[in-house]
């Protein structure tokens, strides 16, 4: 059998192509053997093509199309040739899904041999299994376990991601950012590098900070800021998914990791590594490290500057650190440490949701006369003495204190090291800050009862789906409406 030397079809879905060839052959009322003989190949070879086990060369596919009287466009179309064929293809993919493998379900090797109704039921059951698996893996307990693992990974690397730094450095050089804040012109240059257009819409689903439309290469933002945050951060976080090749997260652990990476990427562009290190090394040499001034130098929010400092301090400046974000009622929302500080944890080891000690700087910042000014103090703990700075910031969810601390020996590098404020914390000992003075307890214990404000985010299951926390129906309807406006 002579074969014409032609290139292969490249990246094609062999299973879908095989279904379309088989559908065209059946429609032409041709047997496998008659078509195989006509194009000069064996029946077994053509059968392998139809079952998706072999990808034909372009010359063979051209001959098959001519013999069946159909165009190449018909055979290479992206849609299944029939509902039945679509169900068979979908079942094949679902049987390879993690949920099916984990359940060790027996595999249906020949879906073409079962009835259409039975096939439809099997596909539905597989979808239900995948949904149930997603929901089970998204309980608060599973989410906290994923968060603990992520924190351990961050600790092992000193919260430094060299691959993300390198990608951000490439973009920084490409747009010519050589110093100072990332202004609107530089931000537009970054967006243009990805060949996207920013579109602001008052109709963007409320829970969405931003939305990427891959089809039309648009980045949707709300018409006005909804959370009071720097809009540049939302733009750069969205572009991070493109720059870092993020796939749709299938697990909450992946979702968390991608969120950390996106935040890191945004910070690395707002405060490029080379520029930030130049500033920080000079400040350390002069013993005037100051997170408030660091934020001001790059015109970024205080919390962004603190995050960026934790990225660079240990790896480049040999300064171990701890970080926390605490609400006004003392609940820890975020935390990271590699300097030996001991955060409170629950029985599962989770830090988020626990109460920070009242004597820590992040709690004391709320009690200062000017609570929006930087607060610095030394805190004696069972793990040692730490120098800490904290500042109260505002967000749509209320006021939060953002704190950064280092061991006492590293306080010498910081401008506010001469602070007169000092506290002693013995938490988790309840006598530290959990017990009321006896005379107040005696007076009020039997005469007061308060309704507690529940922290719903600590109780609710993590929303499953392709858009965690968002309603896919809202997202798709919004995109469809925007596509209609541009047609």
Q: Can you tell me about this structure?
A:
- It is a single chain.
- This protein is of the alpha+beta class.
- The protein has three domains: about 15-105 and about 120-135, 434 Repressor (Amino-terminal Domain) (Orthogonal Bundle); about 145-270, Arc Repressor Mutant, subunit A (Orthogonal Bundle); about 310-450, 2-Layer Sandwich (Beta-Lactamase).
- About 45% of the residues lie in helices and about 10% in strands.
- It is built from 19 helices and nine strands.
- It has helices at about 15-25, 30-40, 45-50, 60-70, 70-75, 85-95, 100-105, 115-135, 140-155, 160-175, 185-195, 230-245, 250-270, 275-285, 290-300, 300-315, 360-365, 440-445, 470-485, and strands at about 195-200, 210-215, 220, 320-325, 330-335, 375-380, 385-395, 400-405, 420-425.
- The chain has a six-stranded mixed sheet with strand order 5-4-8-7-6-9.
- β4 (about 320-325) and β5 form a beta hairpin.
- The protein is elongated, with a radius of gyration of 30 Å.
Q: How many domains in all?
A: 3
Distance between the termini: 51 Å
CATH superfamily of the largest domain: PAS domain
Relative helix content: 40-55%
CATH architecture of the largest domain: 2-Layer Sandwich
Biggest sheet, spatial arrangement of strands: 5-4-8-7-6-9
Structural class: alpha+beta
Describe the biggest sheet? 6 strands, mixed
User: What is the name of the CATH topology of the largest domain?
Assistant: Beta-Lactamase
Keywords: DNA-binding
Pfam families: HTH_31, Peptidase_M78
Domain HTH cro/C1-type: 21-75
GO cellular component, one term: cytosol
């Amino acid at each position: 059998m002579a074969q014409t030397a032609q290139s292969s079809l490249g990246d094609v879905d062999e299973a879908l192509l095989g279904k379309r060839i088989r559908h065209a052959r059946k429609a032409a009322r041709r047997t496998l053997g008659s078509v195989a003989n006509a194009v000069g190949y064996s029946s077994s070879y053509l059968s392998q093509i139809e079952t998706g086990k072999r990808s034909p060369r372009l010359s063979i596919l051209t001959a098959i199309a001519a013999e069946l009287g159909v165009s190449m466009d018909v055979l290479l179309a992206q849609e299944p040739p029939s509902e039945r064929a679509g169900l068979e293809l979908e079942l094949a993919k679902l049987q390879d899904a993690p949920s099916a493998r984990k359940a060790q379900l027996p595999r249906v090797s020949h879906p073409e041999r079962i009835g259409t109704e039975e096939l439809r039921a099997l596909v539905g059951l597989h979808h239900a299994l995948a949904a149930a698996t997603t929901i089970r893996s998204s309980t608060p307990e599973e989410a906290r376990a994923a968060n603990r693992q992520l924190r351990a990974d961050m600790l092992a690397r000193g919260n430094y991601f060299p691959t993300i730094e390198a990608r951000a450095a490439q973009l920084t050089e490409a747009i010519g950012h050589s110093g100072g804040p990332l202004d609107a012109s530089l931000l537009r240059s970054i967006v243009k590098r990805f060949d996207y257009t920013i579109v602001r819409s008052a109709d963007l689903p409320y829970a969405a900070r931003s939305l990427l439309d891959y089809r039309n290469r648009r980045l949707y933002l709300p018409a006005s800021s909804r959370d009071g945050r720097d809009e540049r951060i939302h733009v750069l976080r969205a572009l991070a998914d493109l720059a870092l090749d993020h796939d749709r997260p299938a697990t909450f652990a992946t979702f968390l990791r991608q969120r950390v990476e996106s935040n890191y990427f945004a910070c690395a562009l707002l405060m490029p590594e080379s520029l930030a290190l130049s500033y920080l090394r000079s400040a350390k040499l002069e013993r005037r490290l100051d997170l408030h001034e660091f934020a001001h130098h790059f015109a970024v929010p205080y919390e962004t500057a603190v995050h960026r400092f934790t990225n660079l301090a240990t790896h480049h400046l040999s300064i171990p650190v701890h970080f926390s974000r605490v609400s006004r009622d003392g609940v820890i929302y975020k935390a990271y440490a590699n300097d030996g500080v001991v955060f409170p944890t629950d029985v599962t080891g989770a830090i988020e949701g626990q109460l920070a000690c009242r004597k820590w700087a992040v709690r004391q910042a709320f009690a200062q006369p000017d609570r929006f000014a930087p607060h610095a103090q030394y805190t004696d703990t069972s793990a040692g003495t730490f120098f800490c700075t904290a500042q109260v910031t505002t967000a749509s969810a209320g006021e939060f204190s953002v704190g950064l601390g280092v061991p006492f020996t590293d306080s010498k590098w910081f401008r506010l090291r001469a602070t007169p404020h000092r506290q002693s914390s013995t938490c988790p000992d309840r006598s530290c800050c959990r017990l009321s003075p006896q005379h107040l307890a005696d007076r009020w214990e039997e005469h007061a009862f308060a309704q507690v404000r529940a922290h719903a985010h600590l109780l609710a299951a993590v929303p499953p789906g392709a858009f965690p926390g968002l309603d896919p129906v809202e997202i798709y309807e919004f995109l469809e409406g925007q596509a209609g406006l541009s047609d």
